[in-house]
Amino acid sequence: MRWWVVAMMLGPVGFVCADPDDLPGGPQTAEEFGGGLEVYGALYPAGSETVNFAVIGDYGAGGVGEGMVATMVKRWLPEFIVTTGDNNYGSLDVNVDQNPGLPGVQCDWEVFVGDYYGEFIQRRRDRKFARQTSVVQRFFPSVGNHDSWPDGGLGGPIDGYVDYFLSDGEGGVRLPVDRGAVHDSAVSYYAVRRGPVDLFIMDSDVPAFPELMKRQRDWLAAQVKASTARWKLAVFHHSPVTSHPSRPGATWMAWPELELVDAILCGHDHFYERLLYLGRPLVICGASGAPGYGFSNPPHPASQFRYQGFAAMKVAAHSQGLTIECHSTDEEVPDAIRETLVLGSVAPADMEDVYAFHADAGQTVVVESETPGAPAVGGLDPVLMLCPPRGGVAAMDDNGGGDGRNARVTTVAGESGMWRVKVTAATAASGNYTLKLGLSSPGPRYGEWSAGLSAKGPEEDADRDGLANLLEYALGTDGAVATVSPLRVVRAGAEIVVTFDVPGPPRNGVAVVLETGAELTNGSWFPLVERPVAMDWRAADPYATVSVGTPSAGWRRVTARMPYGEERLYFRLRATAVP
User: Fold this and answer.
1) What are residue 13's DSSP bridge partners?
2) How would you classify the pairing of strands 139-140 and 182-183?
């Protein structure tokens, strides 16, 4: 059964119940584990370390473009995100609280970065920025000209950038500071090693300070030569070559030291372009949210591929090859591959699979594998590793049991976030397998919760407050006591902001979705934000963004933002029973 609560945008908030058969189907299933929390895979062991990440640039402008790109990128489930600069096109003062009624400091960094990518940014120990929720740093920015004071000065203070991404408010740091990294009011550059990839993230926004440019050039040369990574990538904002129609390349970034890396990733120009520079690919990815630019005619002689539209890069690397894909997004096609560039060889034989899912702290996680048929010499012998968001291994089954073909891992999640299950093979054999995921939260199931109610059915309303029992169970309210509206809807300028609280971890056996419509009755309703099983809250509409905070222990506050419009006058929560 499906139950909901409706809030009206203009006027007082109220409740409406209707026939559940009038509603569209339930929420989308989890990205990796499907509707039944079950996936099918195959392994062909060869032995190679892999890493997958996303690259965005010139994105921090808010609005539809950034929202569509962020939605696309998050559906890839990247291990981390790298930026090519211009993270914030608004005010750079991190201490201007635009809405003191919400947790943390509601500055433009939160509006243009945290609203879209906060789940990848390591939270500060003082929780100054409520939308930063990752337990480890999974977001690695570079400085753009819009990230420093003043924009036109090319080299002004970057205090807000450092405070938002590096500082943790209690003397610690959240970006790499080893290997000669520098983060201060003048410049920020550092190196990040993940698997077979070394990223050298530099600050191109200081051409007026030759000593800072030389220091970075020397640092780059020394760090690249010392690196043992198979792939070495340079990342900075201003490209030395471009097909921009009126803006020449950044001559101050024409470094011969760039010959030492395998590829160069830049931004600044609001399009996607791949050029050949110093005999290696240079990719401009500045199309991830800000209004786009056109290309010169003819384009730069070194230009090899161009795309005008909202886009981001999906990068996959292993010990033999590195693949860069340009993915575009628009209202009609939310994810399309525009080009694929392969350095080295294509991916080796599939020797491991990694599946991602969201778990809340306190949930019990169970993952089981099954392989078909009886054990046989040469048959697949799967090994399961359960990895928490901060990395490492929380539980492992090396498949040493008697049947030689099934494995099982279980743990109680000690932290909230995206967990991963890695499936490998104990031998050089290959074969198919089925992987099943189970998640359970502490607390009663629906049957236990409703046992004391005068009317126990999910579709009934025991306390006659307009909320059906299943929805009250999902929201953590008392089914025997009348409940006030769980939805808070306000108009903030050109935006509508909807907030509501849910238990954390979530209730068992129920999924929740926030929908909107232009009419209260006889109209279509569309999902805005949703929480499918095994996934965290996410935007289901390219115009919406969602952030989640922790107002108090055991509760999560969901905040959805979207442009105001006549098609968004009413809002409702729907709860759906799931297996």
Assistant:
1) none
2) unpaired
Per-residue pLDDT, averaged over 254-261, amounts to 97
**Measuring CA to CA, which residue among 132, 57, 47, 123 is closest to residue 88?**
57
Contact 275, 284 (CB under 8 A): yes
For residues 7 and 88, membership in a common domain is answered with no
> How many CB atoms lie under 10 A from the CB of residue 350?
16
**Cα separation of 49 and 138, whole Å?**
18
For the chain, percent of residues with pLDDT exceeding 90: 59
**562: helix, coil or strand?**
strand
Query: Residues 468, 474, 475, 478: is their CA dihedral positive or negative?
Result: positive
- The pairing of strands 38-43 and 431-440 is antiparallel
In DSSP notation, 27-40 reads PPPPTTTTTTTEEE
At residue 421, what is the residue type? V
Secondary structure (H, E, C), 183-225 = ECCCCEEEEEEECCEEEEECCCCCCCCHHHHHHHHHHHHHHHH
Six-digit token string for 202: 């530099």
Query: C-alpha distances in angstroms, 48 versus 222, 356, 363, 430?
Result: 27, 19, 32, 15
Q: At 357, which CATH number?
A: 2.60.120.380
Same domain, 13 and 154: no
Instruction: Give the DSSP letter of residue 110.
Output: I
Residue 351: per-residue pLDDT: 65
Question: Among residues 279, 430, 320, 328, which one has the least CA distance to residue 65?
Answer: 328
0.85 exceeded by pTM: no
Residues of the domain holding 462: 2-29+445-577
In the block, which residue shows the tokens 């058969």? Answer: 21
- Supply the Cα-derived Rg of the chain in whole angstroms: 25
> Which tokens go with 24?
């569209």
Contact residues for 488 (Cβ-Cβ < 8 A; gap 6+): 13, 498, 499, 500
Domain count, the chain: 3
- Residue type (1 letter), 72: M
pLDDT band, very low/low/confident/very high, at 393 (cuts 50, 70, 90): confident
Count the alpha carbons within 13 Å of 437 in the hemisphere toward its beta carbon: 29
